[in-house]
Amino acid sequence: MTASDQSASQELRFPKGLHWYHWAVIFLSLMLTLGAFYISEKQIQLKMASQFEFQSQQIIELVKERMVRYEEALRAGTAALKMLPTAARRQDWREFELSLDLDERFPGINGIGVIHYVPPNKLPTYLAWQRETMPAYQIHPKHDQAEYWPITYIEPQNTNLKAVGLDIAHENNRYTAAMKARDTGEASITAPITLVQDDKKTPGFLFYVPWYDTANYAEFGSVESDFMGLVYAPFIINKLMDGTLENANRLINFSIHDEETLLYTELNSDSSDLDPDPLFMRTETLELYGRPWRFDLQTTAVFRNQQSHIQPYTILICGLIIDSLLLSIFIISTRSNRRAVEYANHVTERLKQRNDELETVSASLKEKNKGLEEANAELDQFAFVASHDLKAPLRGIQQLATWIEEDSEELLPDDTKGHLTLMKSRIARLERLLDDLLAYSRVGRKDGDRTIIRPKDLTLDIFNMLNHDGKFELSENMDNREIEIFSTPFELVMRNLISNSMKHHDKAKGQIKISMTVDSGRASIEVSDDGPGIPEEHQQKVFELFHTLKPRDKVEGSGLGLSLIKKILDRYGCEYSLKNNNDGGLSFFFTWPVELINKEEQNENGQPINQSHR
After folding, report:
1. Which fold has domain 447-613?
2. CATH code for the structural domain at 11-308
3. Least confident window among 98-112, 327-341, 466-480
4. What is the annotated localization of this protein (predicted)?
5. Please, where are the H alpha helices in 157-258?
6. What is the mean pLDDT of residues 546-574?
7. Do 279 and 52 touch, CB atoms closer than 8 A?
């Protein structure tokens, strides 16, 4: 048994279950799914954290920005006090407050006022000065400090009347922040206090800006320095936050502590959109005008509702579905492969049996092929010998007929002379028939070599060889580029077509026209004459062996021309057709495989080729 037989006889094996690499692919796909889920979840968490950080920082920045604006208003007050030529009175301050338009431009502020610094030696003069415009004016409450810091003006006065005359030195938080502002020259705020004008007693604070002036006022001002007092604003924290940040549809809730004292909170059950289990929380301490404000911030229910967790779970579900599909595909594929292997083993066994049968047949075919090759060689030898041996006696008969005709030209009757002429014609026709039969039998035996030709030159050579005395025309599109073809069968086709056209064209005035174009590796050739044409019902019969439309004695050819052409064109896979021309005559169209060598050429005069010859 040969190696191929041994290979064919071996049964294919296939594992009963999934292979290890199937499980590896499923495991890797599952890991990719979980990894994509984890990364997507992390990205969403980072995005939410970034949004929380931004919103938190925005709240803190808004509080800082609002306090800076209040500081600017207070400093505008100190500037206004300096610009007055005399000490400002209550009416002057009221006009200044109206110019600020507090409710519109500074929401959250309770008012804006002036605290005069009054040394003990100036107290009587100060009280007399204030009672000129407000007879009931009193400094209150009493305290043990050696100096007085009374709130002289506060606008709008009607909502802050309880604060008029209040001496801030009576309470430590107010007094400490006031002395700090005086000593540093910087704005400051107090620790948490309860404003006297706030009936609800909610947490608040005072915002101070120190006021200095070189004027020597008899009613107030330090004797040792230029310190005149403070421009201040009282704040209730809840009102300040409402004016700064409206607690509606916000993403962040927060609370503010000054050290351990709660100033403001939204982190209770009464707060809008409170999230009892916030997604994010943070604490940040802000140093604000000398006081540490601690912001406790957390996300709201609005923040939670705006976040979408669909994408990670969509990725997870889709990934698990894909993993399940992969597993299903592997199982189905494994089963299909197992069935395919079983079928392949069955087919292999049948092929082995068939191969054994074919080996027996092959040995027989080899013997037959050898016999066919020998038979073909003998046929070629027979055709050549038959053609040669048959031509020899035909030529002898032809010569005898010629001698008889010459020797008895004056003795023979006209009927006998006609018989001699007919005999000579049939002898010549028989000789042509032998040549055509030999050519027909050799078609397809050998293609010959591919050679480079010029179609126009080849066509002219065929005309000259056939000694044609009529006119022929090469049309303007007769391609004269060099092409590479099997020239021997091509020349045989062209010679038979041109010869056939010569036999049937109008010998008195007719023309034979030939056109040729080359495109996409094929040449298209058309040979037209102006003869009688062929009726459509006979156009397919003319390709049959020995078929002629006229009696054989009236036809110059052997009846094999078109059959020979058809056999050659079929051999090379060419298209061909016959058609009658509108103005008489017949056109034969066919294609031929070519390979283009050079570009299109013109004749010697630089004109497209269009020649006539006689």
Report:
1. Heat Shock Protein 90 (3.30.565)
2. 3.30.450.350
3. 466-480
4. Membrane
5. 172-184, 237-244
6. 67
7. yes
